[in-house]
Amino acid sequence: MQSRFRSDRRLTVRMTVTLFLLGLLYVAFAAALIVLLKSWVLVVVIAAGALAAQYWFSDRIAMYAMHGRVVEPEEYPELHAVVDRLCAMADMPKPVVAVSGLGMPNAFATGRNPDHAVICVTTGLLRRLEPAELEGVLAHELSHVAHKDVAVITVASFLGVLAGLIVRFAFYSELFGGRGRKDQNTLVVFGVVMGVSAAVYALSFLLIRALSRYRELAADRSAALLTGRPSALASALTKVTGDIARIPTEDLRTAQAFNAFYFTPALGAGPSLGKLFSTHPSLEQRLEQLGRISAELGEAAVPGKTG
Predict the structure, then answer these.
(1) 4 lies in a domain?
(2) Is 89 domain-assigned?
(3) d(Cα 234, Cα 219) in Å, to the nearest integer?
(4) Quick one: CA torsion of 93, 99, 105, 111, rounded to 10 degrees?
(5) Number of separate domains in the chain
(6) Angle, helix 230-245 to helix 180-227, in steps of 10 degrees
(7) What angle do CA 284, 289, 295 make, to 5 degrees?
């Protein structure tokens, strides 16, 4: 069923191209492992099992990692009311609603499709935002679900995760410390596996980052058009980004692994790395887009914009 969130052809094209390129990379990666490890059954079974686990259980993994729990309407009536209203406006199934006890103000959506989705907000976000701002954030997350880019990011992330795990395994493997000709041959094989895995990880990392940045702009745009209040979303962005900047870095390290799923990143890529490694567009870029939408809708100026 098509939701009333405005479709984004450019996002669809980007998701298709990203999955196609990652698919080619995945086939080449699996072929290289089969040649090097001489066991196609082992490679196929492990890869298929890991992919299936990430696809089917990604929502549970994310919820566990971020200490989220499913909440009923009786516990958070206002939160459920906003989600109900937005789902009715967008004509889409209501996702499972969850709350994380983290003080970091943020939100994320996960799940393999609109019928099996979870939208989670932190208590830190609920404490800081006004009702209209919260509505903007939730509309942003629901847009990810409606556009199915949550599932695409989940699947796309799999190859990088697998390659990263193989790099770690190869690095820490005791086989590197063996003696004799057989052990030297094993060392060469695992050295090549580690090199191929590192290259695959780097390429998938860059592809996913590029898609992630665009999908955040697409979600901002869709949320602003659905609610008709881009200024409220801009206000939430400004407020949340400023509050996260004041949280000690060490308190954000655990959350950083899930940056691609967040409303705003827990930790940025840093000026030295630039936007190439960032999971999100800059705050300025997001506010500029919302400012244009606000002008198109005839709304008042977006908070945080000048000039």
Answers:
(1) no
(2) yes
(3) 13
(4) -40
(5) 1
(6) 140
(7) 120
Query: What is the residue range of 249's domain?
Result: 9-297
| 3-class secondary structure, 126 | helix
The beta strands (E) that lie in the chain are given as: 68-70, 96-100, 107-113, 116-122
pLDDT reported for residue 301: 46
Given the residues 133, 141, 250, 299, the one annotated as active site: 141
Cβ(108)–Cβ(263) below 8 Å: yes
Q: Is 147 labeled as ligand-binding?
A: no
Exposed/middle/buried for residue 203 (C-beta within 10 Å: 0-12, 13-18, 19+): middle
**Per-block average pLDDT, block size 10, for the chain (307 residues)?**
74 89 78 71 71 70 81 96 95 93 88 85 93 96 91 72 61 50 64 73 82 93 94 94 70 59 69 67 93 85 43
Report which secondary-structure segment, H or E, holds 226: helix 180-227
CA 30 to chain centre: 25
Give every strand in the sheet of 107-113, ordered side by side.
Answer: 68-70, 96-100, 116-122, 107-113
Query: Is 98 inside a domain boundary?
Result: yes
To the query of whether residue 141 is one of the catalytic residues in this protein, the response is yes
Tell me if 208 is assigned to some domain.
Answer: yes
The reported pLDDT for the residue numbered 268 is 54
Known binding residue 116? Answer is no
Longest dimension (CA), the chain: 76
In sequence order, what are the residues at sequence separation of 6 or more whose Cβ sits closer than 8 angstroms to the Cβ of residue 6? 221, 222, 225, 226
144 close to 215: Cβ distance less than 8 angstroms: yes
